[in-house]
Write a structure and sequence with these properties.
248 residues; alpha/beta; seven-stranded parallel β-sheet
């Protein structure tokens, strides 16, 4: 049996949300090294400047703007820029997310901001991408979820709710866009060394050394794997966690 080659990322037009730090930043760097044409954004200009400078020598290209994924105006600006810079979108990777405390310990505006960023921002990103993918005949939506939807650790009620929403959205959306030749995948990371983690750099290094935490680059590699399967193969859910992932 002759196996069909996997998908190359060379020249692919990819929108990465939240690409200025953590998993998003690692993903931008890796996919740009594979020759992709990346557009990304974040809320901080300094962070955006850093990612643009650090990817200047990549095989692909990286462009971006400052925008807030949680606002209608922010997403309108992002997709207007995507249309102008890329002329379409082949792949969406949603990494934009913020952490949270237990809901009773958060101010009303703060927990709502988590929901608007993590869940509503993901839906808005998908909506804009689907419109463009449908017009061009297909594409791939990849959502970064979390194993928090499975382990439901104490202190993560708000965060887990947003990620569970993304999981349910993806599984249902897949049925709605399959006939449009649009793939839908979810990568579910476990504990990862990112700015979202509320621990010191020394504690992160110790957790990594003890196989209790992963590097963001390891999640980016999983994302690359999902995006480079053949057109026939569809990775629905990919769970990746450290060997000694804590579950409480």
């Amino acid at each position: 049996m002759t196996m069909k080659a996997g998908t190359t990322l060379q020249g692919k037009r990819i929108l990465v949300t939240g690409g200025t730090k953590g998993i998003g930043l690692a993903t931008v760097r890796l996919l740009a090294d594979q020759g992709a044409r990346i557009f990304t954004f974040g809320r901080n200009q300094a962070g955006l400047d850093d990612v643009l400078a650090s990817t200047g020598g990549s095989r692909g290209t990286v462009k971006g703007i400052t925008a807030d994924v949680s606002t209608k105006e922010g997403m309108e600006a992002v997709f207007a820029a995507v249309d102008a810079e890329l002329g379409g979108i082949d792949i969406l990777v949603t990494c934009a997310a913020i952490g949270a405390q237990p809901i009773h310990e958060m101010a009303d505006d703060d927990w709502r901001q988590v929901v608007e960023t993590n869940l509503i921002g993901t839906l808005a990103s998908a909506r804009g991408a689907i419109k463009r993918m449908e017009a061009q005949g297909g594409g791939h939506l990849l959502f970064v979820g979390s194993i928090s939807t499975e382990i439901k650790a104490e202190g993560e009620s708000v965060y887990s709710a947003t990620k569970a929403g993304i999981q349910a959205f993806a599984e249902t959306l897949r049925k709605e866009v399959a006939s449009k030749h649009i793939k839908v995948s979810v990568v579910q990371p476990g504990s990862v060394s990112t700015p979202m983690q509320e621990c010191s750099d020394a504690e992160k290094r110790e957790a990594i050394a003890n196989d209790e935490m992963l590097h963001a680059e390891e999640i980016a590699e999983a994302i690359e794997f999902v995006l480079t399967r053949s057109e026939r193969a569809d990775v629905l859910n990919l769970r990746i966690e450290p060997r000694l992932q804590k579950t409480s």
